[in-house]
């Protein structure tokens, strides 16, 4: 539909399922309301949450939350633009997911969580094809599932380091010295490799990921870290059309610094094995760069033999109008590794065949994901297709942007 002021509203968004969608927000109390405040007192009494409780905003009623509306324990119904830190793909309590959970044949998948690396269910490959592999980024035929965004990036780093060492080694024969030295965290068994990241980036809070996270000091304070290179991320000036030359110069400056850091660290005998970047720096302040910047960054990675890792934990799943945000870039050579989590219901990473570990147990943990999440993701993907949600995201984004510009 085209409305006054060229605001685009998708037809899908205009259709309301009266048995599912609310017709708008409804506020009954201030937020947090009285019931939330009582719950605050209870949670403060628990040791585990003693400090984390200070981050809690209010308590929720998920039984009453539907679609894009989150309901709190005081009955306040709010349009949820936060979406559980960008992790809800198709809204709260979607009928298709409820129906999926009610089907008897799916009961075993939700009750029995297997150690997938050694005892997967018979239909695991089939469900992977229906879910993750059905939306695999171009050129990436391999996938490893994980449980969260941090462990997705952490294990992607490991896959990159193994790939780089195998390139250097030129064969798969590991020496006795390598086997012995790795047990005491020393080279040559533990080579001095690094991941290059960007200031303002967020890639997780586990120890390796934290070395590439540079969004807030509170994430990193008091925690030992690794001497890995940190490049500046472009700080563009807006409106973009008024600062074309300045923004091109800013992006060129950042790309030059990336190359300089790779060379500088190589001289320090520390090899940059990979580059990690987000399509949009979300946690770090909603920072953007042009498609051309990312294409040139990919070229730099290839030129210096570095793996190119795109962190789609926050941007993957369709929220940019394409299933993967990096699809907007128009890369002539696909990313080597793409990590995901949040809206994908499960964590993990796609990768090129050459990044496949050369032995079992090298990328491993107890669960390696969760088959029930793949089952849910397959249903989410069906909903995205049948309800045309990628186009809906594009149209809704245009409507929102147009409205915001009108307010200036």
Automatic annotation (TrEMBL):
<dbReference type="Pfam" id="PF00202">
    <property type="entry name" value="Aminotran_3"/>
</dbReference>
<dbReference type="InterPro" id="IPR004631">
    <property type="entry name" value="4NH2But_aminotransferase_euk"/>
</dbReference>
<dbReference type="InterPro" id="IPR005814">
    <property type="entry name" value="Aminotrans_3"/>
</dbReference>
<dbReference type="GO" id="GO:0009450">
    <property type="term" value="P:gamma-aminobutyric acid catabolic process"/>
</dbReference>
<dbReference type="GO" id="GO:0034386">
    <property type="term" value="F:4-aminobutyrate:2-oxoglutarate transaminase activity"/>
</dbReference>
<keyword id="KW-0663">Pyridoxal phosphate</keyword>
<comment type="subunit">
    <text>Homodimer; disulfide-linked.</text>
</comment>
<comment type="similarity">
    <text>Belongs to the class-III pyridoxal-phosphate-dependent aminotransferase family.</text>
</comment>
<dbReference type="GO" id="GO:0030170">
    <property type="term" value="F:pyridoxal phosphate binding"/>
</dbReference>
<dbReference type="InterPro" id="IPR015421">
    <property type="entry name" value="PyrdxlP-dep_Trfase_major"/>
</dbReference>
<keyword id="KW-0808">Transferase</keyword>
<keyword id="KW-0032">Aminotransferase</keyword>
<dbReference type="InterPro" id="IPR015424">
    <property type="entry name" value="PyrdxlP-dep_Trfase"/>
</dbReference>
<comment type="function">
    <text>Catalyzes the conversion of gamma-aminobutyrate and L-beta-aminoisobutyrate to succinate semialdehyde and methylmalonate semialdehyde, respectively. Can also convert delta-aminovalerate and beta-alanine.</text>
</comment>
<dbReference type="InterPro" id="IPR049704">
    <property type="entry name" value="Aminotrans_3_PPA_site"/>
</dbReference>
<dbReference type="InterPro" id="IPR015422">
    <property type="entry name" value="PyrdxlP-dep_Trfase_small"/>
</dbReference>
<protein>
    <recommendedName>
        <fullName>4-aminobutyrate aminotransferase, mitochondrial</fullName>
        <ecNumber>2.6.1.19</ecNumber>
        <ecNumber>2.6.1.22</ecNumber>
    </recommendedName>
</protein>
<dbReference type="GO" id="GO:0047298">
    <property type="term" value="F:(S)-3-amino-2-methylpropionate transaminase activity"/>
</dbReference>
<dbReference type="GO" id="GO:0005739">
    <property type="term" value="C:mitochondrion"/>
</dbReference>
<keyword id="KW-0531">Neurotransmitter degradation</keyword>
